[in-house]
Amino acid sequence: MWQELRTELRPQGLEIVTVALDARGSETAGPWISKAAPDHPSLIDEAHVVDALFGIVNVPSGIWIDEDGVIVRPPEPGYPRRPAFLDRVVPPDASPAERERIELVKALHVDAERYVAALRDWVERGGESPYALTPVEVVRRSRPRTIEEATAAAHFALGQALHARGARAAAVGHFREAHRLQPTNWTYRRDAWSLAGTDRENQYGTNWVDEVKRQGVENYYPRLRL
Amino acid sequence: MVFTSARVTVDEFERIAGWRLKPEGLCRGERCVPFRSNDPDVVELDAVAEALAMPLVRDERHGLWALGSEAGTTALRSAVAPDLELPDFRGGTFRLSSLRGTKVVLVAWASW
Q1: Is the Cβ pair B112, A22 closer than 8 Å?
Q2: pLDDT score, position A108
Q3: Using an 8 Å Cβ cutoff, are B13 and B2 in contact?
Q4: Are B68 and B55 within 8 A, CB to CB?
Q5: Which CATH number covers residue A86?
Q6: Does some domain include residue A224?
Q7: Distance between CA A38 and CA A163 in Å, rounded?
Q8: pTM to 2 decimals?
Q9: Of B59, B100, B111, the CB nearest to A170
Q10: What is the extent of the structural domain holding A196?
């Protein structure tokens, strides 16, 4: 999805680095990466260490880092183009559940046009761009890390490690604990759900629609503060 | 950061956690946190957890320990990007610091 922008902006000195938050690693992310045939580094993060290191809680999230290795924008929703789900039409024969899901997805805040325009401005103007935040503002905007959120990271890592060792029931216990401790972390939720396949609602007792409604659709992707 | 023992060799700890044990303490990048280990080759995870304010979660049945992230701060303690090190999809190792001198957008995505 980022290759096109990378081709456009690489001559001006921008590199894209993608990180796949997939507990099954290359097994699930690999085919997508191969299909995209990216020229940029494409990394695999089975234990979601970028959540712990940068405060990422959902995908896609973008972090801008300048030439000196200084973050100028902390994690925020980062779509490189308008996603097709915003323009989906509810089929006339859709079930009430399907209709609700499609309408909920269409209500998510995504502003790819402004995000990409801001990115082009920063690539061109660097520190002079109004979208490059000061170090103080970057830290101020990054998420507070409570003891609960810090502990959720440990449970998610244990869940991923146990799943990889075949101890699936034990893994679910740790994933559930991570979800309880950090309910707003969608990467912890959705990756664990994907491991459960069609049995996800039995194992976790909830689903995406119910959780989005519980937390408020406006909070799924916070509005960009550009 | 998952470990298979509550006592780990310094080599294993440094490889998994990304922190280095130095005379001044545990260091990551330019930042060092005071820490002393009685054994120069081994660290106790509960002592590390206390020094770094990282919760230590134990799964006794499976013999696994995991350190969480640092608590009581913001996710970013400073605007200096942590030196992320991860495998690329071909199995090589990538370090974010290898792109110093270049603007970078780090993008988190997923297949699910």
Answers
A1: yes
A2: 97
A3: no
A4: yes
A5: 3.40.30
A6: no
A7: 29
A8: 0.94
A9: B59
A10: 147-218
pLDDT per position as a tens digit, A118-168 = 999 999 999 999 999 999 999 999 988 999 999 999 999 999 999 999 999
* Same domain membership, residue A103 and residue A8: yes
A92 falls within a domain: yes
Distances (CA, A) of B32 to A154, B1, B28, B81: 22, 19, 6, 16
Domain end (from A141, A169, A194): A141
CATH number for the domain harbouring residue A194: 1.25.40
What is the number of H-type helices and E-type strands within chain A?
A: 12, 5
Q: Is A125 in a helix, a strand, or coil?
A: helix
Distance CA A205, CA A197 (A): 13
Q: How far is CA A117 from CA A8, A45, A131, in A?
A: 13, 28, 10
Which residues 126-155 of A have a C-beta within 8 angstroms of B? 126, 135-136, 138-140, 142-147, 149-155
A26 occurs within a structural domain: yes
Distance between CA A87 and CA A93 in Å, rounded? Answer: 18
Strand order in the sheet with A42-44: A42-44, A14-20, B103-109, A61-65, A71-77
